[in-house]
Amino acid sequence: MVARIRSASIAFALAAVSIPAGLHAQAYQCALPDVVRVPDVARDGEVRRSPITGYTFALSWSPEFCRFREGDRTRARQCSGRSGRFGFTVHGLWPDSGRGWPQWCAPSEPPAAALQPNRCISPDMHLLARQWAKHGSCMVRKPRTYYRVTRILYAGLQWPDFVRLSREDDLNAGMVRERFADANPGWFENAIGVHLNERGWLQELRLCYDTRFMPIACDARRIGAKDAAPVKIWRGL
User: Fold this and answer.
1) In whole angstroms, what is the distance from residue 165 CA to residue 179 CA?
2) How far is CA 204 from CA 92, 114, 225, in A?
3) Is residue 230 within 8 Å of 161, Cβ to Cβ?
4) For the chain, which residues make up each domain, given as ranges?
5) CA 162 – CA 176 distance, rounded (Å)
6) What angle do CA 237, 84, 230 make, to 5 degrees?
7) To bridge 192 with a disulfide, which of 31, 138, 177, 203 should be the other Cys (CB 3.0-4.6 Å)?
8) Is residue 41 a contact partner of residue 94, using CB atoms and an 8 Å limit?
9) Of 200, 152, 211, 161, residue with least CA distance to 182
10) Topology (CATH) of 26-31+42-223
């Protein structure tokens, strides 16, 4: 049987991650575009159905992602600057089983209107459709619910000033974790995965949740760089 979030867990998540009034915008000056056709998504791996033991919220640092992609027409919304400047964007919300990622459980094409409200936190339409098909279909029955939970989790986060952080001397992964935890009461440092590219630039944060969407310590697959690892943050300016 496909492992799914129970209704009680969804209700708990909606109550637990209220939207703070002082939220730092991460999609700077973003305006929602016109609704477009949902792209086709091809399955690229086996179907894996297994009990859900927690979740990972993967957040990409857009200036690093867009580095060298400013002229890529397929990434124009996120990287050209014409649709605003993005900070952290949602890569995906993934269910975890402790042994791997449940995936491709019951993919279906989501309606375009379900994706549309998420396009200032996840600007790539193909990525949005793929995240539902590969991961969200293992969590809930309706794509609207998956995208809504994604928005609520994102809106429940406060963001330290990563541009200022990028200028700190001897910046390391432990300092990134510390600043994020300080900005988000209830979070603790080993619940925050810090993922760097091969050149040591910040690529992604991976936030680890239990089945009630409360922070939990990341396992070795999700924690990423060790605290002492040097970190560089591309500002994209």
Assistant:
1) 9
2) 11, 25, 11
3) no
4) 26-31+42-223
5) 9
6) 40
7) 177
8) no
9) 161
10) Ribonuclease Rh; Chain A (3.90.730)
pTM: predicted TM-score of the whole model, two decimal places: 0.86
Q: What is the pLDDT of residues 90-135, one digit of tens each?
A: 999 999 997 778 999 987 888 888 998 998 898 888 899 999 999 9
Residue 25 · residue 159 · CB < 8 Å: no
DSSP letters along the chain, please?
------HHHHHHHHHHS---TTPPPSEET-------PPPP----S--B-----EEEEEEEEHHHHHTTTTT-GGGHHHHSSTT-EESEEEEEEEEE-SSS--B-SS--PPPHHHHGGGTTTS--HHHHHHHHHHTGGGT-S-HHHHHHHHHHHHHT-----HHHHTTSTT-BHHHHHHHHHHHSTT--GGGEEEEE-TTSBEEEEEEEE-TTS-B----HHHHBS-TTSB-B-----
Measured between alpha carbons, how far is 216 from 55 in angstroms, rounded to an integer? 9
* Cα 159–chain centre separation: 13
Residues 62-90 pLDDT 10s = 999 888 877 667 777 778 767 667 889 99
